[in-house]
UniProtKB/TrEMBL annotation:
PANTHER family, alphabetized: BLR5969 PROTEIN
Domain AMP-dependent synthetase/ligase: 122-277
Species in which this protein is naturally found: Pannonibacter anstelovis
Name the record gives this protein: AMP-binding protein
UniProt xrefs under InterPro entries: AMP-bd_C_sf, AMP-dep_synth/lig_dom, ANL_N_sf
One Pfam family recorded for the sequence: AMP-binding
Length: 414
């Protein structure tokens, strides 16, 4: 897709976009029912031909991420939601959970190029990609999008900070893609080692919150940082533009905000769970409940793009929480407790320190002697490093929280 084609689609009238999306919807519903046994079961009471409006779509049952996880466990690897077979699928990924995802078809299978273009990336740019290329789709997601835009990609991945600094100094990339926090790690380490990082002028970040203080820090260094909201199942759902006014819903997605725990849409402006429908014929997602909270913003972006806007990430409808770009689920904390019967009760507290996510597992236990062993188990289960704080029995609140996210988001997206 050319830049002109992308721009033309972004500036369609909202009514035209809505009409075209819902004219296409019955066909993807029919395709999902005929080609994917999981969708055939989930949509058994749905007449695809009748789903031609938001009101009709609201009657289709929501498939939540937790449901998909259970379906995949019962019927591995995809729970019956892959349309067809793996023949022709280039890659399969395993995200934390684990949740399995097939790579969609196409040059830009996760619809990333538009978000990069809105963030100032252009054909010919050299881009350093610090998302992981291992197990999960993050690295490939941005890699495909950047190359579809005409950029040259250095696949840096995560870690190996000193080698990445050498790559920046040698290749002089103008763009960075990765998590918000890791860009600061690179810049700070580069300054400490006297490396020339001045080529970096723009960044598209995801996988964590771009806190206002962090965005301001990057701006002071001469780097314009915008963010996109993406998931492994759906790709880039929404993205920021230079207008800095909410996040614009990507083309080829239908976004609804529903009352958490239900499939009932809420009024524009009301906070609820983000539910998304895509048109991916390999792995269709129809009313997929992301578990994330957001709200629809009124009006259109001042940048001229006419797509629906959302407020970005506003928390979790459940307690599943993204920490350092990885999701941690209450089920994982239950797993830690099961391995340590000396723990009577536990709560994972997530905070920020020095512009980094910090997680602390507070445990009620009669002894502090096993704290290091508990910390080791926490890291093994979540793949993230965290501290363990031993608490007196009865000191943790009786409010049902297993994960307490105490970071100050300032209304920004994660």
């Amino acid at each position: 897709m050319t830049a002109e084609h992308r721009e033309a689609r972004e500036r369609r009238s909202p009514d035209q976009r809505e009409a075209e999306l819902f004219a296409r919807l019955p066909e993807i519903l029919r395709h999902a029912r005929e080609e994917a046994p999981g969708w055939a079961r989930h949509l058994k009471d749905v007449d695809p031909a009748a789903v031609t409006s938001r009101q009709a779509l609201a009657s289709v049952p929501v498939l939540r991420k937790s449901d998909l996880l259970q379906h995949q466990k019962a019927e591995p690897p995809f729970g019956g939601f892959l349309a067809g077979s793996l023949r022709g699928v280039q890659r399969v990924f395993m995200s934390p959970g684990p949740i399995w995802e097939p790579q969609p078809e196409g040059q830009d299978p996760w619809n990333v190029a538009r978000a990069l273009e809105a963030a100032g990336f252009r054909p010919g740019d050299v881009v350093i990609n610090t998302f992981s290329y291992h197990l999960t789709p993050g690295g490939f997601l941005l890699d495909h999008g950047a190359r579809a835009l005409g950029c040259t990609v250095f696949p840096g991945g995560v870690g190996n900070t000193e080698m990445l600094l050498e790559a920046v100094e040698t290749l002089k990339p103008s763009g960075y893609v990765g998590t918000p926090d890791f860009l600061k790690v690179l810049l700070d380490k580069g300054a400490e080692m006297g490396r020339d990082m001045s080529s970096l002028k723009r960044a598209l970040v995801s996988g964590g919150a771009l806190f206002p203080s962090l965005r301001a820090d990057y701006a002071a260094r001469g780097i314009a940082v915008l963010q996109c909201y993406a998931t492994a199942e759906l790709g880039v759902i929404a993205y920021e533009s230079e207008a800095g006014s909410g996040m614009i819903v990507n083309e080829d997605y239908i976004v609804e905000i529903v009352r958490p725990g239900t499939g009932t849409p809420v009024a524009d402006g009301e906070v609820g769970e983000l539910v998304v429908t895509n048109f991916n014929r390999t792995y269709p997602m129809i009313r997929f409940g992301t578990g994330d909270l957001s709200a629809v913003l009124p009006g259109q972006s001042p940048c001229g793009r006419t797509g629906q806007r959302i407020a970005g990430w506003m928390g979790r409808a459940d307690q599943r929480t993204k920490i350092k770009g990885m999701f941690v689920d209450p089920v994982q904390i239950a797993d830690v407790l099961a391995r340590h019967p000396e723990i009577r009760k536990a709560r994972l507290v997530v905070t920020r320190a020095s512009e980094q996510d910090v997680m602390t597992l507070q445990v009620e236990t009669a002894t502090s002697e096993t704290a290091s062993a508990i910390a080791a188990t926490l890291r093994e289960v979540t793949k993230l490093k965290g501290a363990v704080e031993c608490m007196a029995e009865g000191s943790l609140p009786n409010d049902g929280k297993v994960i307490s996210d105490e970071r100050d988001y300032g209304g920004q997206a994660a």
